[in-house]
Amino acid sequence: MRTLFHNNQTVPHAYEGGISELRRAITLHPIKRPSIMRRMHAHNRALRLTALRSRRVALIGDLPMTKTPSLTRHIANTTRDLRHWDFISSNSILFCTGQVNCPRHTVDLSIRTAIGDVVTQLFDEFNSNARQRGRMLQFQNIQYGYVRVEPRFGVDYVLDMVLWFKKFRPPHRATLSVRRHAYVQQTFGSLEMTSDAALRETLRQRTDKVIRLRKVNSSEEVDWSKVALPPQQSHIFIILPLSGRADTFRRFTDHLRNMCQDRNRFSLVVVLFTSSPEEDSAISATLRELRSDIDVQVIEMGQALFSRGLALARGAAALTPDALMFFTDVDMLFTCETLDRIRLNTVRGAQVYFPIVFSEYSPEMWSDNDRLLSDAFHYGRRRGYFRHFGFGLVSLYRADLDLVGGLNVNIKGWGMEDVDLFEKCVRSPLRVLRAPDPGLVHIYHTVRCADSMPEAQYTMCIGSKAASLASLDSLVDQISVYS
């Protein structure tokens, strides 16, 4: 009875968390806020939409020309084309291969949510005619399971479940604990297309509503009407912290000058810390040459101790709220296509782009073929690797940087400011787009980790230094030479 007539006793924060328990409820109490009522309505419509999509798939399956359903929707002709399963244990640990964090890690929230929805729908279908059959199935837990994604078809599950089998018709009333295997296929829906402009507007309106909802008091009603949002600028401001390293800066500017024909679509903001007189003189000469081709703005930091977080914050402060910013480093080389991806993947008030950078190993450990290549944009296993845990490069609008709380300017020296900004973006209403970008290459350089660094920064610095020395293949070759 309490499942049908749902009364949440956690007032005044009722229904602000998970609402999956409301699937079978026919009345809800208490709901005091219009925003919560709207959330309940949206949840109900989502359940209805899921049911209609399931019904559509079932009807399509009944058509004469439809193939007979099979557990094998994709036949692999090569080992490369074979889709591997991931194993999920009873303690929510996922065992996998060929991915970040493998061979084992905690099951992601998205997978846990998907499996929970699958189990709920599965038992709803089992018990849809429970009264006629005189028996009911009740879920207990999952002993183990397998999951894999077939990109063209959907998601496959094999779930070993413990459940209660209840017979409630006399004289055979009984309750048994049984184990059963469930083979489940989630089929992708039909292809839907939309324009880039429509998608960006939808994302911006949706995020704006979330931000407005967070700002109002519990007693106020939210205005859900569509609002006119400020325009988006496509001109990119490349913000570069710099202290010394004149030769590396010369390489950066030479590449920047030659990489793209249309130089009016981006500007360079150099946040310059004073170094040695020779280095500063060489940097000044390079800047004078660069100004003839590219719009350059220099922010002098004087004798201040180098801090990447402070430099990026000062560079951002010099721009207007509608400025599209790209935080980079002097060791980076990038292509004109990367700038196009920055414009496409960064949405003001909705999305932040954290590209995954390809980082070179030490050239001393490259293969002979890699040494013959003339430019940096090659991606052999022995040449470099994608930095899945590096967050230093990011593109976002100045207004969005202020929204998430800005940069931590108290972090001195190398590292940690990027992780701090990434965590702020994840906690914010903004969506984070994280993907490898083949047009971004970090050129190898010697890393020096000062003993005076805080422990967390020093550990991260040593880890980055070790990871960039050589590939595993090269290390194995070295072992065979000296063993």
From TrEMBL:
Query: What's a Pfam family in this record?
Result: CHGN
Q: Which GO terms describe its cellular component?
A: Golgi cisterna membrane
Q: What is its EC number?
A: 2.4.1.-
Q: How does it sit in the membrane?
A: Single-pass type II membrane protein
Is Transferase one of the keywords UniProt gives this record?
A: yes
Compartments where located = Golgi apparatus, Golgi stack membrane
Going by the UniProt record, its keywords in alphabetical order are: Golgi apparatus, Membrane, Signal-anchor, Transferase, Transmembrane, Transmembrane helix
Enzyme class, top EC level, equals transferase
Where this protein primarily resides, as one coarse class? Golgi
| The organism's place on the tree of life at top rank | Eukaryota
Key word Signal present in the record?
no
**GO MF terms, alphabetically ordered:** glucuronosyl-N-acetylgalactosaminyl-proteoglycan 4-beta-N-acetylgalactosaminyltransferase activity
State the InterPro entries in the record: Chond_GalNAc, CS_glycosyltransferase, Nucleotide-diphossugar_trans
Against PANTHER family, the record matches this protein to:
CHONDROITIN SYNTHASE, HEXOSYLTRANSFERASE
Q: What family is it from? A: Belongs to the chondroitin N-acetylgalactosaminyltransferase family.
Q: What is this protein called?
A: Hexosyltransferase
